[in-house]
Design a protein that fits this description.
This protein is α+β, with helices and mostly antiparallel strands. It has 4 helices and 8 strands. It is globular. The termini are far apart. The structure holds a DNA duplex (13 and 13 nucleotides). GO terms for molecular function: alkylbase DNA N-glycosylase activity; DNA binding.
DNA sequence: TAAAAGATATCCT
DNA sequence: GGATATCTTTTAG
């Protein structure tokens, strides 16, 4: 497994990133929950919920670049979210890292996050970035460069993976592009976006 | 130049 | 479980 394995469709990239180890600034964790995003309206997987849907902009340019780069963006002003860019160069694909289990540097992670339950240290995209020390300025770093401050170590794909709808999106609400490992307490509880259309009443 | 929306987290009831 | 804080990016006028 190397960076070439990430030059694929968003959902395939998501499955490959799941279970990988993300190292950043003294803290490392195994990724246990991800969401796939990507595509443009005329592409093979149009995804109206993705930042890339309306074409490249200054913010989402990394999504259109080569695989293996870190795409960070700010949400609601304060939170930072981390993505791994996927797809071949020129194709928009990214995997949002939603949760991880800290395997090294727990003390440091606790210090950054304030004292909290271990399972909550890197649960949720914003919290995960805080625990690993990832900031908005890390946008575009090559995760496979040995000298990069943030690195990704791919593992063999997990055999047991669960899939379901993405959290907090108001478009393409029912697309099962969220993937997580079973039996992990750090996986987020599913929350439908308050702006999403009401679910069909059975 | 202005306004709205957003891939959230936290605190309150 | 539900409302709100908070600010950047994008889009419209």
């Amino acid at each position: 497994m190397d960076v070439d394995a990430l030059a694929a469709a968003p959902d395939a990239v998501a499955r490959r990133v799941l279970g990988a180890t993300l190292r950043g600034r003294g803290v490392a964790g195994v990724i246990v929950e991800v969401e796939a995003y990507g595509g443009v309206p005329d592409g093979p997987w149009p995804d109206p919920a993705a930042h890339s849907y309306r074409g490249p902009t200054g913010r989402n340019a990394v999504m259109f670049g080569p695989a293996g780069r870190l795409y960070t963006y700010r949400s609601h002003g304060i939170h930072v979210c981390a993505n791994v860019a996927g797809g071949p160069d020129g194709v928009a694909a990214a995997v949002l890292i939603r949760a991880a289990v800290i395997t090294a540097g727990v003390e440091l992670a606790r210090e950054r996050r304030g004292l909290r339950a271990d399972a909550a240290l890197a649960r949720g995209p914003g919290n995960l970035c805080a625990a690993l020390g990832i900031t908005i300025d890390d946008n575009g770093v090559d995760l496979f460069d040995p000298d990069a401050p943030i690195r990704l170590e791919l593992a063999v794909p997990a055999d047991a993976v669960l899939a379901g709808p993405r959290v907090g999106v108001s478009k393409a609400v029912d697309r099962p592009w969220r993937f997580w490992l079973p039996g992990i307490s750090a996986v987020s509880a599913y929350r439908r976006s308050p702006r999403a259309p009401a679910p069909p009443e059975p």
